[in-house]
Amino acid sequence: MENDFQFYLPTRLIQGPNCLIKHSHYLKRLGKKALIVTGVNSSKLNGSLDDVITALEKENIRYKIFDGIDDNPTIELIQQAFNENEREGISFIVGLGKGSPIDAAKAIGVLFRHRGISAREAFNMKNLRSIPIVAVPTTAGTGSEVTPYSIVTDHQLRTKKDFGQESFPKLAYLDPRYIYTADFNSILHNAFDAFSHLVEGYLNVNANLMTDIIAEKGLALFGELKEAFIRKSLSPDQIDQLLMASTMGGMVISQTGTSLPHALGYVLTYEKKIPHGFATAAIFKGYLGLYSDEAKLSRMLSILGFASTAELMAYIDRIVDYRLDLTEDEIRVYTRNMLNNQGKLTNHPDRVSRNQIADMYQKAVKK
Ligand SMILES: [Fe+2]
Q1: How far is the CA of 196 from the centre of ligand 1 (A)?
Q2: CATH number of the CATH domain containing 286
């Protein structure tokens, strides 16, 4: 690793219970009317939507709500959210909820900034900017609050893909209270998304001194939670810790990008409906064996508290609960699509062959 790099992260991060209300004054700088982009239910149940509204009202900011974002927002849904609000005088967007509403907010923000360009057209363009985005995550996993990425579902390509613009949120409010009421399975698959970000960013061709410092801290925090995941119970302090690890994962991939588990895992979420964090974990069995820098791999294992790759894999196998059956034909098609999209493979330090990709899919099968 050469100490010759840049590190750019233009998001103000505000962490802690009640942080939205306590630090609402930052919203004032962003304009007079907000569009709140969120999901159908959870932000209403966990109190986060009430907090956003209270914070906006406190600052005399008017707002509209678009609450139609589901787990895998499509290009069409992003277009719809813009169309319904384009004449509302929106000056900034609050992405509130799991990763999806935050990712969707970033893409919708691009359409507000570049009027006349459709979501489909923007998906195939580069270097478009967004109106300001405020991220309020209510899960610990995607790290979207500190990344420029916006992952959307494309039914034409039959997979999930980055919208492709650089939309770092201006503000990220991290309040662990919103996660206290989440069910354990959702906490777990989001936690494995965060874990994948930390690992894929650490074992990444773009890793540098700064990203490694953050990744090592995030991995250590994750390692301390191993037993809690086995017990299927996290205390409020542990949820707080997981949220920090998740944001660190986001900070790392905001610089490095993700690697093979994300590249290969998206299609498993699209075609097989495996939650994103479990889909990336599924690819780990084949992925870790391909990483050739033994010294860095053992440093990572020791930070996590595992004696070997086999021990880490046994742990993942024990707690990551999914079922996946793939036919030879499906593996062949997924592998071919991956090879046709080489850009997704370049963050792994070594060249990846057809057989290696097929082997990672084969090893992800779990009956
Ligand atoms: Fe992810």
Answers
A1: 7
A2: 1.20.1090.10
98 vs 132: which has the higher pLDDT: 132
pTM recorded for the entire structure: 0.94
Query: Ligand 1: distance of its center to the CA of 262 in Å?
Result: 6
State in Å: Cα 198 to ligand 1 middle: 10
Which of 122, 154, 179 marks a domain boundary? 179
Asked if pLDDT for residue 1 goes beyond 70, the answer is: no
More confident residue, 228 or 127: 228
Same domain assignment for residues 213 and 163: no
Give the distance (Å) from ligand 1 centre to CA of residue 284: 13
Residues 64 and 129 in one domain: yes
> 114 C-alpha vs ligand 1 centroid, how far in Å?
27
In a shared domain, residues 192 and 175: no
User: In which band, very low, low, confident or very high, does the pLDDT at 2 lie, cut at 50, 70 and 90?
Assistant: low
DSSP-H helix ranges across the chain? 19-22, 25-28, 42-45, 48-58, 75-85, 99-113, 119-123, 184-202, 209-223, 226-231, 236-256, 260-272, 276-287, 294-304, 309-319, 328-339, 354-364
